[in-house]
Write a structure and sequence with these properties.
The protein contains 8 helices and 12 strands. The protein is of the alpha/beta class and 237 residues long. The chain has 2 domains: 124 residues, Rossmann fold (3-Layer(aba) Sandwich); 97 residues, Arc Repressor Mutant, subunit A. GO terms for molecular function: phosphorelay response regulator activity; transcription cis-regulatory region binding.
Length: 237
C-alpha cells in the first residue's frame, strides 16, 4: 500500500482524541487533516478529497450520521464512525447509512489504525482518483486540473469560475447523477448565492462552450426528472 498518497480526515470535537489519532496515523505513514465540527468536516472533505474519514457521531453542529448521509450522496470514500454509543441498534444504524466500520469509545489507537488499514485494503479498488490531465474523444476535449485549464480541439475554453466548478464536479463523479441541490452543494458549498434553477443557466453556457452540438450534448447530459451527469469517457493512455 502506498501510504504517501493516503490522507485521513479526522473529525472529532475533542482535541485530545484528534491529537492521539493524528499521532498514531502519522507514525504509520499517513497524512492527516483535522476537523472539529461538522461544517469544517464537509468543507475539508470537498477541499482535500481524503482517502478515508474517521468520523465522530456527536459533534456540536451537525451529527456524524448527517455528515455520513451527505457524503454518501456523492462519494464512496470509506468512513469509520467513532461513538460512545454501544447499543447494537446504533451500530447497525451507522452501517445502514453507509459507514464502512464502527469503533466505540474508549478505543485503542492501534486497533483504530488496524481498522483503517483493513478498510482501505477492502475499498481501494472502488475509489478512482482523478488524473491531472484527462483526454476525451481522441483529445477533442482535454482537462488539465493542475492548470485549471480546459481545451477543446486545442483551443482554451473560457469557462467562468462558477462554470468551471460545476463542470469539474460532474467530471469528478462520472457515475453520479446530481440533482440541482447536490450540484450546488458540491460545487459551491454554502457560498452559492442564487436559486437552484441558476444551475440550468450555467449548464446551458457550459454546453455552448464545450459541446459540438449543444442541443445534443455528449459531455454534460440531462437526466430528466433528476438533474445532470457527465457523459464523457476518457481515452486510454
Amino acid at each position: 500500500m502506498n501510504l504517501s498518497a493516503k490522507r485521513i480526515l479526522i473529525v472529532d470535537d475533542e482535541a485530545k482524541i484528534v491529537d492521539v489519532i493524528k499521532s498514531y496515523l502519522e507514525k504509520s505513514g499517513y497524512t492527516t487533516i483535522e476537523a472539529y465540527n461538522g461544517k469544517d468536516a464537509l468543507d475539508k472533505f470537498k477541499k482535500f478529497n481524503p482517502s478515508l474519514i474517521v468520523l465522530d457521531i456527536m459533534l456540536p453542529d451537525i451529527t456524524g450520521d448527517e455528515i455520513c448521509r451527505t457524503i454518501r450522496k456523492i462519494s464512496r470514500v470509506p468512513i469509520i464512525m467513532l461513538t460512545a454509543k454501544v447499543e447494537e441498534e446504533d451500530i447497525l444504524k451507522g452501517l445502514n447509512i453507509g459507514a464502512d466500520d464502527y469503533i466505540t469509545k474508549p478505543f485503542s489507537p492501534r486497533e483504530l489504525v488496524a481498522r483503517i488499514e483493513a478498510v482501505l485494503r477492502r475499498t481501494s479498488d472502488a475509489i478512482v482518483p482523478l488524473a491531472n490531465i484527462i483526454c476525451f474523444n481522441k483529445d477533442e476535449l482535454v482537462i488539465d486540473s493542475l492548470k485549471y485549464e480546459i481545451r477543446k480541439k486545442g483551443e482554451i475554453v473560457n469557462l467562468t469560475p462558477n462554470e468551471y466548478k460545476i463542470f469539474m464536479t460532474l467530471v469528478k463523479y462520472p457515475d453520479k447523477t446530481f440533482t440541482r441541490e447536490e450540484l450546488i452543494y458540491m460545487a459551491f458549498g454554502d457560498d452559492f448565492d442564487g436559486y437552484d434553477r441558476t444551475i440550468d443557466t450555467h449548464i446551458k453556457n457550459i454546453r455552448q462552450k464545450i459541446e459540438n452540438d449543444p442541443k445534443n450534448p455528449k459531455y454534460v447530459l440531462t437526466v430528466h426528472g433528476i438533474g445532470y451527469r457527465f457523459g464523457g469517457e476518457s481515452d486510454e493512455i
